[in-house]
C-alpha cells in the first residue's frame, strides 16, 4: 500500500473547501466546550476534591490533574466523531470516495489524506483547549505544552487509524452507536482522565492500562506538569505509534477491498 | 483507444457464490467514435465499464486503454480518461463550482487552470447560474450535467458514460444528448452503456449488444437492424390473453412473429400489407400500427427478451 504523498496532497483543496463550508457548525464546540469542561470539572468539582498531591500523579491540585486528562479525552472524542459517520458517508451516502478513486488518486492516497485531515482537526481542537487552559495556571513550562500538543496528534492518529479501519469494515452505520457507548464513553470515564487508575480494582486497572486513552492521558499529564518519566513516556509513544501503523495498514487494505471490486 | 481480448470479470458474491459478470468479450474502440454497450440490467455492461475505467481488476483476458495496462498504469489511465458513473458521486456538502474545482485538483492541475476550466465547463453544461448552488438543490438532469462536466475537467481523450440518462425525464435526456453530440464533434471518444435503444441509436456509431456477460452482436445501429430484423414491423394488439391463440393464424404473413404479453410483432418488409392480410382473414385487432425496426427488435431477436424488463 505505498502512498504517493505528492498525489495525496492534491486533496488538500478538497479538505480546505470542506472546512470553509462547514467550520461554522463546529466553532462553538471547539472554543466553548473546553472552557466549560475546565471550569466545571477542574475548578468547581475540583474545589471539593481535597486529595493528597502524592496520589495525583504529580499534580498539585485536582484542576492540574484533570486538565491534561480532559485535553487527551477531547482529542479522542473528536476523532471518534470524524472517522465514523463522515467516513461511512463518503462510502455509502454521497459516495465521494468513488469519485476520488475514478481520478488518478488511489485508495492509499484517499486514506492518507482523510487521516491527515483528522489530525488537522485534532490539532485545532487541542490547540484551542491548551490555550483555554493557560489562564488556569496548570502549565509547568512552554516546552512541555508544545510536547503535549504533539502528543495529542499522535494520540489522535492512534485512535483515528484503527477506528477508520473498523468503520470501513462495517456494512453500515448501525454499529456506531455501540462503538460510542461501549468503546468511547467507558474509555472517556475510566482511563485515568478524571481519577488515578490506581483507584480501580486490579483487573480493571489492568484493562485501563491497555486502552490507548490511558497512554495518551498519562503522556499528556507528564508533559503538561513537567514530571516526565522518560521510560514510561517512550512506552506510551511506542504503543500509540504501533496503533497508528497497524490501523493505517488495515484501513487501507480493507477500504481497497471494499472499493476496488 | 480501447482493446479488449477475451476480457472476463468474476466476483465472489456475499453468499460465497462466484458470479461471472463478463465471460470473455472482444472489443475495439477507435479514436473519435461513439461506442455503445447495449444490454439489459445484469448483462455485464457496468462491470466492463469499471474495468475500462481502471477501478476494477481484470479477472481474465487482456485489456489495453490508450495502449496502457490498467493493472500497472491505473493512475496514468485515469488521468487521461473521464468517468461519468451510473450513480452520482458528487459531494453534497460542496456547491456546484467547488465540486468541479476540487475534482480538477485531484488531477494535479494548477489552481488558476482549474478555475478557468470550471468556468468553461459550467458554461458548456448550462449551469453557470447555478455555480454557487448546493448540489442537493439541483434537479436530476442538472446533477447529471454536473457529473458530465466533472468528468471533462481533465480534458479526457475518452469519456466513459455509464447509463448517462437513466432516471431523467425526456427533456433532460435531450439536453444531455445534445451536450454529448457536441463533445463527439470536438473529437472526444465516447464509450457509453445504456439499456435504452433510442439512446444507442441516437448516439452510437457502433455498438455491441451484450447479454449474460457475452457479446451477441456487433455493428452500427443500421447494420444491426439490417442483419437481425426486417425493414418494418406491424404491431397488433388483441384482447388480453388472445395473443398466443392468434399467433399461429398469422405466422405465414411475416418472416417472423414475436408474441409479447401485450401484442404481436410481425416482422416483414411491408407492414401495411401484412395488416391488410390480417383483416382479410377476419381477425380484428384492437389496435394495429406499422413502424420501422429498432434496436429493441434486434435485441428481442437475439435474446428473446425485451431490453427494459
Kindly report how far apart the N and C termini of chain B lie.
32 Å
Amount of beta strand of chain B: 25-35%
Q: Taking Cα atoms only, what radius of gyration of chain A do you get, to the nearest Å?
A: 19 Å
- Silhouette of chain A: globular
* Secondary structure category of chain A: mainly alpha
How many domains, in number, for the residues of chain A?
1
Summarize the amount of helix of chain B as a percent range: 25-40%
Largest interface: A-B, 28 and 33 residues
Number of strands of chain A: 0
Side by side, the strands of the main sheet of chain B go 5-6-7-3-8-9
Number of domains of chain B: 2
- What's the tally of helices of chain B? 11
Overall strand count of chain B: 13
CATH architecture of the largest domain in chain B: 3-Layer(aba) Sandwich
* Proportion of residues in helical segments of chain A: over 70%
Order of helices and strands of chain A: HHHHHHHHHHH
Descriptive overview:
- By secondary structure, chain A is mainly α.
- Chain A has one domain.
- Helices cover 76% and strands 0% of the residues of chain A.
- Chain A is built from eleven helices and no strands.
- The longest helix of chain A has 34 residues.
- Chain B is of the alpha/beta class.
- Chain B has two domains: 224 residues, P-loop containing nucleotide triphosphate hydrolases (Rossmann fold); 63 residues, 2-Layer Sandwich (Alpha-Beta Plaits).
- In chain B, 37% of the residues lie in helices and 27% in strands.
- Chain B is built from eleven helices and 13 strands.
- In chain B, the strands form three sheets. Chain B has a six-stranded mixed beta sheet with strand order 5-6-7-3-8-9, with helices on both faces. In chain B, strands 11-12-10-13 form a four-stranded antiparallel beta sheet, covered by helices on one side.
- In chain B, β6, α6 and β7 form a beta-alpha-beta unit.
- In chain B, α5 runs parallel beside α6.
- Chain B starts with a strand and ends in a 6-residue tail after the last helix.
- Chains A and B meet through α2 and α5 of A and α2 and α3 of B.
Amino acid at each position: 500500500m505505498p502512498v504517493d504523498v505528492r498525489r495525496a496532497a492534491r486533496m488538500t483543496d478538497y479538505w480546505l473547501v470542506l472546512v470553509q463550508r462547514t467550520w461554522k457548525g463546529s466553532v462553538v464546540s471547539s472554543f466553548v466546550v473546553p472552557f466549560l469542561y475546565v471550569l466545571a470539572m477542574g475548578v468547581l468539582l475540583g474545589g471539593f476534591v481535597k486529595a493528597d498531591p502524592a496520589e495525583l500523579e504529580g499534580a498539585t491540585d485536582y484542576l492540574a490533574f484533570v486538565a491534561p486528562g480532559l485535553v487527551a479525552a477531547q482529542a479522542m472524542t473528536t476523532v471518534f466523531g470524524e472517522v465514523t459517520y463522515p467516513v461511512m458517508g463518503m462510502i455509502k451516502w454521497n459516495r465521494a470516495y468513488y469519485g476520488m478513486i475514478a481520478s488518478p488518486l488511489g485508495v492509499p492516497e484517499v486514506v492518507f489524506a482523510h487521516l491527515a485531515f483528522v489530525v488537522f482537526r485534532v490539532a485545532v481542537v487541542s490547540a484551542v483547549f491548551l490555550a483555554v487552559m493557560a489562564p488556569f495556571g496548570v502549565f509547568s513550562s512552554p516546552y512541555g505544552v508544545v510536547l503535549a500538543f504533539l502528543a495529542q496528534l499522535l494520540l489522535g492518529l492512534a485512535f483515528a487509524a484503527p477506528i477508520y479501519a473498523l468503520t470501513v469494515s462495517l456494512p453500515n452505520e448501525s454499529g456506531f452507536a455501540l462503538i460510542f457507548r461501549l468503546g468511547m464513553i467507558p474509555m472517556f470515564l475510566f482511563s485515568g482522565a478524571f481519577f488515578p487508575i490506581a483507584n480501580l480494582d486490579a483487573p480493571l486497572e489492568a484493562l485501563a492500562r491497555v486502552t490507548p486513552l490511558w497512554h495518551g492521558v498519562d503522556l499528556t499529564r507528564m508533559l503538561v506538569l513537567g514530571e516526565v518519566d522518560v521510560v514510561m513516556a517512550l512506552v506510551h509513544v511506542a504503543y500509540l505509534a504501533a496503533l497508528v501503523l497497524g490501523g493505517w495498514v488495515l484501513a487501507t487494505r480493507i477500504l481497497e477491498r471494499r472499493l476496488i471490486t | 483507444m480501447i482493446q479488449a481480448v477475451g476480457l472476463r470479470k468474476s466476483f465472489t458474491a456475499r453468499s460465497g457464490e462466484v458470479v461471472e459478470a463478463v465471460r470473455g468479450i472482444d472489443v475495439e474502440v477507435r479514436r473519435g467514435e461513439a461506442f455503445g454497450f447495449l444490454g439489459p440490467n445484469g448483462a455485464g455492461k457496468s462491470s466492463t465499464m469499471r474495468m475500462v475505467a481502471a477501478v476494477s481488476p481484470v479477472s481474465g483476458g487482456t485489456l489495453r486503454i490508450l495502449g496502457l495496462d490498467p493493472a500497472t498504469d491505473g493512475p496514468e489511465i485515469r488521468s487521461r480518461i473521464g468517468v461519468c458513473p451510473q450513480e452520482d458521486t458528487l459531494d453534497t456538502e460542496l456547491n456546484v463550482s467547488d465540486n468541479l474545482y476540487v475534482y480538477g485538483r485531484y488531477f494535479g492541475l494548477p489552481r488558476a487552470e482549474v478555475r478557468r476550466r470550471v468556468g468553461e465547463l459550467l458554461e458548456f453544461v448550462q449551469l453557470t447560474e447555478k455555480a454557487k448552488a448546493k448540489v442537493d438543490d439541483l434537479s436530476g438532469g442538472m446533477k447529471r450535467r454536473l457529473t458530465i462536466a466533472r468528468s471533462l475537467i481533465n480534458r479526457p481523450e475518452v469519456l466513459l458514460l455509464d447509463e448517462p440518462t437513466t432516471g431523467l425525464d425526456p427533456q433532460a435526456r435531450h439536453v444531455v444528448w445534445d451536450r454529448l453530440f457536441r463533445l463527439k464533434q470536438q473529437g472526444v471518444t465516447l464509450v457509453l452503456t445504456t439499456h435504452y435503444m433510442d439512446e444507442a441509436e441516437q448516439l452510437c456509431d457502433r455498438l455491441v449488444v451484450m447479454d449474460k456477460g457475452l457479446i451477441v452482436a456487433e455493428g452500427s445501429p443500421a447494420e444491426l437492424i439490417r442483419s437481425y430484423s426486417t425493414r418494418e414491423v406491424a404491431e397488433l394488439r388483441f384482447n388480453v390473453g388472445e395473443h398466443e391463440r392468434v399467433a399461429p393464424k398469422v405466422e405465414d404473413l411475416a418472416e417472423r412473429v414475436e408474441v409479447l404479453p401485450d401484442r404481436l410483432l410481425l416482422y416483414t418488409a411491408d407492414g401495411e400489407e401484412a395488416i391488410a392480410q390480417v383483416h382479410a382473414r377476419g381477425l380484428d385487432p384492437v389496435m394495429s400500427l406499422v413502424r420501422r425496426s429498432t434496436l429493441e427488435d434486434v435485441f428481442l431477436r437475439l435474446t428473446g427478451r425485451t431490453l427494459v424488463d
